[in-house]
Write a structure and sequence with these properties.
Oligomer: single chain
Strand content: under 5%
Number of helices: 5
Order of helices and strands: HEHHHEH
Number of strands: 2
Helix content: over 70%
Number of domains: 2
Length: about 120
């Protein structure tokens, strides 16, 4: 699912930042599994901070370890040789065209799946 999300936002990312990353799929494989836990832990930490500050501080240390790993992986991946390339600025119309083509491709895939899995008529 992470790879699908990356593919879907890729045209906007390249258009906005002018950078095409080759290492982001690998970095996300190492990072994404921790994100829900870090988010939940952060939320619990906030609630604990409202009730009992020392507990929130302890949870903050655990969150810091997870967030430290996320930053370490992101920084390491960004420093790898050939991690990405700069892309020349292009018109927004190309982003629209890419998304139209991607939408058409997804439509065709869904249409073919639906056609393949239809039950045969019993005559």
């Amino acid at each position: 699912m992470t790879l699908a999300a990356q593919i879907l936002v890729l045209p906007i990312l390249v258009y906005t930042f002018g950078n095409l990353s080759f290492v982001s799929p690998l970095a996300n494989i190492l990072i994404v599994p921790l994100l829900p836990y870090a988010t939940i832990l952060g939320f619990i930490m906030i609630l604990c901070g409202l009730i009992f500050l020392p507990a929130a501080i302890l949870l903050g240390y655990a969150a810091r370890i997870m967030l430290g790993w996320i930053l370490l992986v992101a920084e390491f991946a960004a420093r790898l040789p050939g991690a990405g390339i700069q892309v020349e600025k292009f018109d927004a119309i190309w982003v629209i065209i890419i998304y139209m083509m991607l939408g058409w491709w997804i439509y065709l895939i869904q249409k073919n799946r639906h056609f393949k899995f239809q039950a045969p008529n019993s005559k």
